[in-house]
């Protein structure tokens, strides 16, 4: 039976009693695996369960998740896949992430408030009556809203950024939405959650927080693009 590869941990990592995973040792490291059933794409429910089980590994030590859907034909192939990621790099990343976790914060600003802020700057004035001018003005408004949103988020999230080891801007699905990832100490995760929840008491902001997650946004092991990493959580 082939294997799903879920992540890399230290060989002494403690698995939860109810974990669906097992460890395949590789020197002082181990790859977290589970048996792979029929060959098919994961359902959304299975993907959520996978992430929940992966997050449950955090109390046992740092975790470097692998992209969902990574597989190997057997344990030897699983070890080879981890070797290809360079063991010294993996050890370094695990050391950096000891006692750390990733928190995802999402702020959604009320569109009316954003438009009023842009209007006060004069962005909504002028423009011709033809279609091209209307489209161009709409694009300018969107850029102004994104700039306003970014600056608002900088101020609101400053206390969280101060306690974070690293911060990354994540893709947002809407021009009124700010999405960021923070690497913080695992024991500060609830402090971050409380701070984000407090931001949502404003009539103009909806806030949400996901985590703690294995801090993987900042170490893209598949593409090694340095500071230009992308989150594999899909949120």
Automatic annotation (TrEMBL):
Subcellular location(s): the record lists: Gas vesicle
Q: Which InterPro entries match?
A: GvpL/GvpF
Protein's UniProt keywords contain Transmembrane helix = no
- List keywords of the entry alphabetically: Gas vesicle
* Family membership noted in the UniProt record: Belongs to the gas vesicle GvpF/GvpL family.
Q: This chain belongs to which protein, by name? A: Gas vesicle synthesis protein GvpL/GvpF
Please report the organism this UniProt entry assigns to the protein. Lentzea indica
């Amino acid at each position: 039976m082939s294997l799903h590869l879920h992540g890399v941990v230290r060989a002494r990592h403690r698995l939860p009693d109810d974990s669906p995973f097992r460890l395949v040792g590789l020197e002082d490291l181990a790859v977290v695996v589970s048996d792979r059933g029929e060959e098919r794409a994961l359902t959304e429910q299975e993907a959520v369960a996978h992430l929940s089980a992966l997050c449950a590994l955090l109390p046992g030590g740092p975790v470097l998740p692998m992209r969902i859907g990574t597989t190997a034909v057997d344990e030897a192939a699983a070890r080879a896949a981890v070797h290809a990621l360079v063991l010294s790099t993996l050890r370094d990343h695990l050391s950096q992430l000891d006692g750390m976790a990733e928190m995802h914060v999402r702020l959604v600003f009320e569109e009316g408030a954003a438009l009023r802020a842009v209007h006060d700057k004069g962005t909504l004035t002028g423009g011709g009556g033809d279609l091209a001018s209307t489209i161009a003005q709409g694009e300018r408004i969107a850029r102004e809203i994104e700039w306003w949103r970014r600056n608002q988020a900088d101020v609101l999230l400053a206390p969280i950024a101060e306690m974070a080891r690293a911060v990354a801007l994540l893709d947002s699905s809407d021009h009124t939405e700010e999405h960021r990832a923070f690497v913080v100490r695992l024991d500060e995760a609830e402090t971050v959650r409380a701070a984000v929840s407090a931001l949502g008491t404003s009539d103009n902001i909806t806030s949400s927080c996901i985590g703690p997650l294995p801090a993987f946004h900042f170490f893209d092991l598949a593409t090694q693009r340095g500071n230009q990493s992308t989150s594999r959580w899909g949120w």
